[in-house]
Write a structure and sequence with these properties.
Blueprint: H1 8-15, H2 32-35, H3 52-67, H4 71-83, H5 88-97, H6 100-106, H7 113-121, E1 125-127, E2 130-131, E3 143-147, H8 155-167, E4 173-176, E5 181-184, H9 199-206
Antiparallel strand pairs: 1-2, 1-3, 3-5, 4-5
Length: 208
């Protein structure tokens, strides 16, 4: 998925709902899902009912596309979640929410996760004062994410933060817009992760 270079709106149409892969465009009437509410391709409007396996596969693909990660990496997250205490599906989503690139997006420093991944890769953020350029870095409760000194004038970051301020931030992060920093307060509960996915279907898929 990280190497996908095709149209992002095509991915949303394939899943039949908005995955917010293009940032602000997804909130406008230009959103492809709003204009064409059927899967892409020649037979998009004539697809039949999905099998149980098909439903499970679509849920997995949906989560992969939302968090912008590849299959092997996603399976590793699932295996780790299955070893931890709690409901496997919920723990899986919580692990994904702890990723640094996701936190950068949740804190409003990027318009979408694809952009946040690139910003992290290029070394534009620090965690607890130390530069971290690994998008999959897992944050812990209380970790502070800040824009690096050399990157504080980046227009992409400041413009994205201004938009995010208007929409608001999740309850599990605290953001200081003036200081260009944010705090990962705690791991969110399942109810707080506003993701339209049935994670139990993913568990069933990998449990076969």
């Amino acid at each position: 998925m990280a190497r996908y270079t095709g149209p992002l709106c095509r991915l949303c149409r394939r899943e039949g709902e908005k995955l917010f892969l293009k940032g602000t465009r997804c909130y406008t009437e230009k959103c492809a899902v709003e204009r064409r509410k059927y899967p892409p391709g020649q037979h998009g409007q004539n697809r039949g009912k999905l099998s149980d396996y098909g439903l499970q596969l679509r849920e997995k693909q949906k989560v992969r596309r939302v968090y912008w990660i590849m299959e092997d990496q996603f399976r590793n997250y699932f295996e780790k979640a299955s070893r931890l205490k709690g409901i496997t599906g919920e723990v899986l989503l919580q692990l994904l929410e702890r990723r640094l690139d996701n936190a950068v997006y949740r804190m409003g420093f990027a318009l979408n996760r694809r952009e946040s991944r690139q910003l992290v890769r290029h070394g534009h953020f620090t965690v607890n004062g130390r530069k971290v350029d690994i998008p999959s870095y897992l944050l812990k409760d209380g970790d502070t994410v800040a824009v690096a000194e050399k990157s504080r004038e980046l227009q992409a970051i400041t413009e994205s933060l201004a938009i995010a301020e208007q929409r608001g931030f999740p309850e599990w992060v605290e953001v200081d817009p003036k200081g260009l920093s944010g705090k990962f307060v705690r791991v969110p509960s399942r109810d707080e992760i506003q993701l339209p996915v049935q994670e139990q279907l993913i568990v069933e898929l990998y449990s076969k």
